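User: Some background: our group keeps a shared notebook of sequences we're curious about, and every so often someone picks one and asks for a predicted structure to add to the entry. Today it's my turn. The entry only has the sequence so far, pasted here. Could you supply the structure so I can complete it?
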Amino acid sequence: MTVQVQMVRFALVGVVNTGTYYGLYLALLTWLPYVAAHVVAFALSMVGSFFLTSYFTYRTRPTWRKFVLFPLTNAANFVVTTCGVYLLVDVMHFGSRYAPLIAQASAIPITFVVSRMIMLRPEPAQREREGVPVQSAG
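Assistant: Of course. Here's the predicted structure to add to the notebook entry:
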């Protein structure tokens, strides 16, 4: 599968994930402050995003190792969107309902690069079979 196809699939997963996040955010916004609603919705939608990214975007088997590393793909996304939401709402006085959608757009390229590195990196056992030395954590 080419990188271009992966980018298109990544974008489609992003649309689904953003819709999931935004729906959760709006539901949570009815009884939580906007930052708390953002954090909870972000965490919940990230789990679904992991499986869609594994199966659909990169056609790779999800593993516990990838699941544990996957939040790194969203760390930069989280920082960019959280800062963006804060700046848009508290500094620029945008409405809290639409600020997350605007902030999300600026984090997409960073998330693609990091997710590709994590999801397509061979597992340690596979690298060992291929003759690539595996460093131990000890």
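Suggested note for the entry: The chain is about 75% helix and 0% strand. The two ends are 36 Å apart (CA to CA).
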